[in-house]
Design a protein that fits this description.
By secondary structure, the chain is mostly beta strands. About 0% of the residues lie in helices and about 55% in strands. The protein contains no helices and eleven strands. The strands form two sheets. Strands 2, 4, 5, 6, 9, 10 and 11 form a seven-stranded mixed β-sheet that branches. Strands 1-3-8-7 form a four-stranded antiparallel β-sheet, with no helix packed on it.
């Protein structure tokens, strides 16, 4: 397993942008796919998107497609979630998670994103 730490959460206004970072440490970091998830108050955790081990493939949920972009820098062991045109419904705790198999088995502690109207 690897250890993941999110950062960059903040309170912003509708329409603004924010970039979250996920720093990954441990063995064979660059072999892990990394996903972003979010959980709003009173709601279940939701898949946001993921990037494969070398960064050349990404997948996004329909709710963020076209607004959010995931990238990774394996030299810095960091995965980024660029969020543009934020809306109040994007308010949530954002988590990054790592996997080498089918299931995500390593999770960060989360970072709060609040979007005010």
């Amino acid at each position: 397993q690897v250890q993941l730490t999110e950062s960059g959460g903040a309170q912003v206004q509708t329409g603004e942008s924010l970039r979250l970072s996920c720093t990954v440490s441990g063995r064979a970091v660059s072999t892990y796919a990394v996903g972003w998830f979010r959980q709003a108050p009173g709601k279940e955790r939701e898949f946001v998107g993921q990037v494969n081990w070398n960064g050349d493939r990404t997948v996004y949920s329909d709710s963020v497609k076209g607004r959010f972009t995931i990238s990774r820098d394996n030299d810095k062991n960091t995965v980024f979630l660029q969020m543009d045109n934020l809306a109040p419904e994007d308010t949530a705790v954002y988590y990054c998670a790592g996997r080498r198999g089918v299931e995500y088995d390593s999770w960060g502690q989360g970072t709060q994103v609040t979007v005010s109207s």
